[in-house]
């Protein structure tokens, strides 16, 4: 059912270790499905026979005959320097065959990094490079494994818009994502994965974005009347927030400035309380970590 949808983005959501990345590897032809036969994995003819009559039979046949190309943005972008050497520009130029390299470079804010060696890139820069590397290639299937990791809010939205640009009548686009806001923005349909991390995972049928996200949060599949998590995930603001703040400690910090080379951080005086969570929101490189230090 993962491949019943074209001209749309299919989002996959689920806890860590439940099989999302494994599913992408299987669909990319990098991992052969064992059909649950761990001790005696079947050969490809048996696998194709198992999926006979379904779209997956045709899909795997095309993969085996090299008539279908799948590109995958890996989950662990920090491992890219081990597999690729060269500058950002040389690697993108080598793979680019869609005629959109310059536009993708601008969208992913890579123009200032073109002469940088891959091993010199930070986590966020590697993430943007990896997304761009997928988007400049001609392929039938585009898969993005956690594309928002290391990116700030602005960069996440830019990446999401670029991924949606990959939609075409002859292509599939699949995204694994934990950020529910990005998943909501990106996806047209959602599959939830549930099970026991590191043991087994089950993929639900595709559902609408709102229904799919609510299904994941509720831990309950209404169409099957089945609960896969004991407790629902809820985000509620305490109705007694003011009373809680009065009972907790209050800490103040003075106005300050910090110069790091050509970068200057200016902080206005403020305060915070314990027993509460404060979110520092801003683009990468604007001084959030410097302020904490």
TrEMBL record:
SUPFAM superfamilies: P-loop containing nucleoside triphosphate hydrolases. Coiled coil: none annotated. InterPro entries: AAA+_ATPase, ABC_transporter-like_ATP-bd, P-loop_NTPase, RLI1. The keyword Zinc-finger does not apply. Residues 5-219 form the ABC transporter domain. Keywords: ATP-binding, Nucleotide-binding. GO terms for molecular function: ATP binding; ATP hydrolysis activity. This is ABC transporter, ATP-binding protein. It comes from Oesophagostomum dentatum (Nodular worm).
